[in-house]
Design goal:
This protein is an alpha/beta fold. The chain has 19 helices and 7 strands. Strand 6 (334-337), helix 14 (348-367) and strand 7 form a beta-alpha-beta unit. Helix 3 runs parallel beside helix 4 (116-126) and helix 5 crosses helix 11 (291-300). The two termini are 29 Å apart.
Length: 474
């Protein structure tokens, strides 16, 4: 195949393959699709790049079978640049979306934008409608006495930016992005120090044992957790007695848990790393960035500040109308929801309550002119590859979820191709109202085919066109 010259440098975007290591990966001509999919998750960028090239070539030659496009989306997938329970890279997630027939897909990583260029370029090559986001925790002083969506942490809120078009950020906000990474690193180092003391004689080295589990040095609690479990397994052939003592659980209970790795990891994380655990430190106002600082980073990149909703049970989320009013005043334009944890529950009464809360927050988002971003996260074992939109519980809100995905895709494509995304001067001048702007970018999303075809179509549009003329042209 003929490789186009560079994976788009528009919007200050760099071809991620330029960052590849000098050592060349070798793909044998007879490599199976499983071999190529495994290579898509290699930590070496050039190995992923070459595997993707081979998959694209085989796809174009009709050698690979893929599912027809389905009316489902997953706009919140963590990659291995933060933590993906399946080990998926940005390229692997783009291929997963193409192979499984997801209508739209998006990545969201904690504290970094490292996967942005790779994912968007892979989506372009494969013909996938894609988006890129970032997630962190922020402190909201106005809710300092109320728990929001971070359990046991009043005033602290998981918060997102969505619709980025590059891994690069303007120099004037680069320090904010760097600060997210540095804060996370310091929290991790403190946790490792406390856990090393408690779990002695089992201990880990952060640089050697934790960062080696990551492709670019951005570790999370889950990486630390894996490192301790591996260390205990290396030290003890049978670590059940060790964990029994440290977790204060009967040995037989630990033996049963060790047979179910996801369940065991969840227990260790809950007992040692979460609130009340030896590795945990209660955060305060200075533990995370202020909301306004985070929004400054997001909007400087032309992206969209995005609130995150958990399940409507906390004191802060029971005052969701008040919270959303505050967040909208501070610049929030999208709301993120993880649907599966709000209906897929064994207890019928809890399911009834949470489904009711889900419907209420969707209605509230619509009243506030907030499109909705949804997904499964994939950063915990057992989470789905995509939501089941056919279940009765999601039928009343399904269209709102899909419309929100197309809105984000429309913004992403307009920003990437022309610099005319939601936050642009052009959009603010021609579409000053929140609802009319939402409607425009949603329609653009529905009009545009995925991949290079859509970008080419936009790039051929005259920059002087009004929004109505843009839609007519599309």
């Amino acid at each position: 195949m003929t490789w186009h010259s560079g994976w788009r440098k528009a919007d200050r975007e760099l071809k991620w393959s330029f960052k590849c290591e000098s050592k060349k990966a070798v793909i044998m001509p007879a490599a199976s699709i499983q071999d190529l999919e495994d290579q898509l998750n290699d930590f070496a960028p050039n190995a992923r790049f070459q595997a993707l090239m081979e998959i694209v070539q085989r796809l174009e030659q009709g050698e690979l079978s893929i599912n027809p496009e389905q009316h489902v989306v997953n706009m919140h997938c963590h990659t291995f640049f933060s933590f993906n329970a399946y080990g998926y890279s940005p390229s692997a997630l783009a291929w997963l979306a193409k192979k499984q027939g997801f209508e739209l897909a998006g990545i969201v990583d904690f504290d970094v934008l490292d996967g942005a260029d790779e994912f968007l370029s892979a989506c372009e090559l494969l013909g996938v409608r894609g988006s890129v986001g970032i997630e962190t925790r922020v402190f909201i002083p106005e809710f300092a006495d109320r728990e929001i969506n971070s359990p046991g942490e009043p005033g602290v809120s998981y918060h997102m930016g969505i619709g980025f078009t590059s891994s690069l950020v303007p120099k004037r906000v680069a320090a904010i992005l760097d600060g997210l990474h540095q804060r996370a690193r310091q929290r991790n180092l403190g946790m490792v120090e406390r856990l090393n003391q408690y779990l002695n004689p089992v201990s880990i080295n952060y640089e050697q044992d934790v960062l080696s589990l990551t492709p670019a040095g951005n570790a999370t609690e889950r990486h630390i957790l894996k490192a301790y479990i591996h260390s205990a397994a290396r030290k003890y052939g049978d670590p059940s007695k060790f964990w029994s003592g440290k977790l204060e659980l009967p040995v037989q209970k630990v033996i049963a848990l060790l047979a179910d790795e996801p369940a065991f990891q969840n227990v260790v994380r809950s007992k040692l790393m979460k609130r009340g655990g030896i590795g945990y430190v209660q955060p305060g106002p200075d533990s995370f960035p202020q909301l306004e600082e985070y929004h400054k980073l997001i909007t400087a990149c032309g992206a969209l500040p995005c609130a995150a909703w958990l399940d409507g049970l906390s004191a802060g989320e029971q005052a969701m109308s008040e919270l959303l009013k505050l967040l909208v005043e501070k610049g929030v334009v999208v709301l993120n929801i993880i649907p599966d944890r709000n209906w897929n529950l064994s207890d019928p009464e809890i399911r009834r309550i949470k489904v009711g809360n889900l419907y209420q927050v969707v209605k509230l988002a619509q009243q506030n002119g907030l499109p909705i971003n949804v997904g499964t996260e994939m950063n915990s074992y057992g989470q789905k590859l995509v939501d089941d939109f056919d279940v009765p519980e999601l039928q009343p809100v399904r269209q709102a979820f899909i419309d929100g995905a197309y809105f984000i895709y429309g913004h992403t494509m307009m920003q990437r191709a022309l610099g005319k995304g939601y936050q642009s001067h052009w959009a603010r001048m021609h579409l000053p109202g929140r609802r009319e702007r939402n409607d425009f970018f949603t329609k653009v999303g529905y009009c545009l085919p995925p991949g290079k075809v859509g970008l080419t179509r936009l790039s051929q549009m005259k920059l002087s066109l009004t929004p109505d003329e843009f839609l007519a042209g599309l």
